[in-house]
Design a protein that fits this description.
The protein is of the alpha+beta class. It has two domains: 1-42; 47-166, Quinohemoprotein amine dehydrogenase alpha subunit, domain 2 (Lipocalin), CATH 2.40.128. It is built from one helix and eight strands. The chain has an eight-stranded antiparallel β-barrel with strand order 1-2-3-4-5-6-7-8. Strand 1 and strand 2 (65-75) form a beta hairpin. The N and C termini lie far apart (74 Å).
Length: 168
C-alpha cells in the first residue's frame, strides 16, 4: 500500500512540476513579449509617416468593379490631409464599359488624420474627361508599421467598396 501511495504521490508531484514549468515558460514568454515587443508594436503612426506615394487597388466585390491607382498623399502636422489618386479602370460589371477598361481619371482628395492610425478623406474634384471615375469617401486605417492603408469606401452609399494601398 505504501509503495502505491508513494508512486501516486510521485506522479502528482511530476504533474505539478510539469504544469508549473509550462506556466512559468508561458508567463516568461508573455512577459518578454510585453517588455520587448510592445513598445515597438504600440508606437503610433504619426501623420507625416504616411506622406508620399502609394500603390492602390479599389474593389466593390458585390458589384464587380475594380480599379488600380497611384496615390500621392500629404498630411501636415495638424492632421490635415490632401492629395490625388490617379485611377485606372481594370474591371467593370457593365458590358458597355469593356472599351473603357484601361482608361484613367484623377480624383483630388482632402481630409483629416484625427488620431494616429485613422485617416478619413473625401474626393472633392476630378480630372476625368472620359467619365471613368466617381468621387468617393474613404475611412481608412493605417497599419502599425505605416506601410499599408486599408478600409471601406462610400461606393455611392453602400459602403461596400474596399480600398487597399501599400508603399511602392
Amino acid at each position: 500500500m505504501c509503495g502505491r501511495l508513494r508512486g501516486y504521490m510521485r506522479t502528482i508531484e511530476q504533474k505539478v512540476v510539469s504544469y508549473t514549468m509550462r506556466t512559468f515558460r508561458t508567463c516568461s514568454a508573455a512577459l518578454a513579449l510585453l517588455v520587448f515587443a510592445a513598445p515597438i508594436a504600440a508606437t503610433p503612426v504619426v501623420a507625416q509617416d504616411i506622406n508620399g506615394k502609394w500603390s492602390c487597388i479599389w474593389v466593390d466585390l458585390d458589384r464587380g468593379w475594380e480599379f488600380e491607382c497611384q496615390m500621392s498623399l500629404k498630411v501636415d502636422k495638424t492632421g490635415q490631409a490632401s492629395g490625388q489618386i490617379h485611377w485606372t479602370m481594370t474591371r467593370s460589371p457593365k458590358p458597355k464599359d469593356k472599351s473603357r477598361i484601361g482608361l484613367s481619371g484623377i480624383e483630388f482628395i482632402r481630409g483629416t488624420m484625427k488620431k494616429p492610425g485613422s485617416l478619413s478623406f473625401d474626393g472633392y474634384a476630378e480630372d476625368d474627361p472620359k467619365d471613368v471615375i466617381g468621387l468617393d469617401k474613404y475611412r481608412l486605417q493605417v497599419s502599425r508599421n505605416g506601410r499599408w492603408l486599408y478600409g471601406p469606401t462610400w461606393a455611392h452609399g453602400s459602403w461596400k467598396g474596399q480600398f487597399f494601398a501599400k508603399r511602392p
